[in-house]
Amino acid sequence: MSKIIDTFIVPPCPEQIEILYQDAHLVLINKPSGLLSLSGKNPQNLDSVHHRLVQLFPGCTLIHRLDFGTSGLMVIARNKAINAALCHQFSQRTVTKVYSALLCGHLAEDDGVIDAAIAKDSALFPLMSICAVNGKPARSRYQVVERFYRESEDGTSLPVTRVQLIPETGRTHQLRIHCQQLGHPILGCDLYGGLLLPGTERTPRLMLHASELHFMHPTRDEPINAC
Predict the structure, then answer these.
(1) What is the pTM of this model?
(2) 67 noted as active-site residue
(3) What is the residue-wise DSSP string for 135-177?
(4) Do you find a cis peptide bond into 126, omega within 30 degrees of 0?
(5) Residue 167 CB coordination number (10 Å)
(6) DSSP 3-state assignment of 7?
(7) Are the beta carbons of 224 and 82 closer than 8 angstroms?
């Protein structure tokens, strides 16, 4: 089997990480779009959420990740015990994550569920694929917030839908590939369609933002509702 080589070089990210909350156990942040969660194997891809935060909070670890292009809420553990406690919540699916996204086109239904297994295929790297046979179960819910039109450079009115997305599982690229499965890819998605709307020339950032994060504080046993 040939070895997968990732040649992607991340452009510099001038935006700062916004620290929303911190205590002796954890840190809540708002990640900017265009910043890796973890440093890549290529030394040119050193800059990341972890690389920046470990200089402020030595020993901190990531509980979960957001894609390079996705912005929004992340929780960071400040020691191994908190890491284990929070990882347990994620593995038991007691953590609720809510995302806001702009999708290409107007969805016909106001809400729904995408239930489609996702598989990793080295031949398609870095793409994932929908595969009922070899894929792992993946389920996402969506709720339409608004349908509107964006004007393109050539004056054409283009349909766009703002949705709230709630992943019930946590597969790689789950929301991006599930929205593609709906026939309405996320605007700005370079992997699963939606990179450009018809009649436009400027590539937008990935229009996906982790807007809410709900979990239990691992030491105080009280709910944390970040939004």
Answers:
(1) 0.92
(2) yes
(3) SBP-EEEEEEEEEEEEE-TTS-EEEEEEEEEEESS--TTHHHH
(4) yes
(5) 19
(6) coil
(7) no
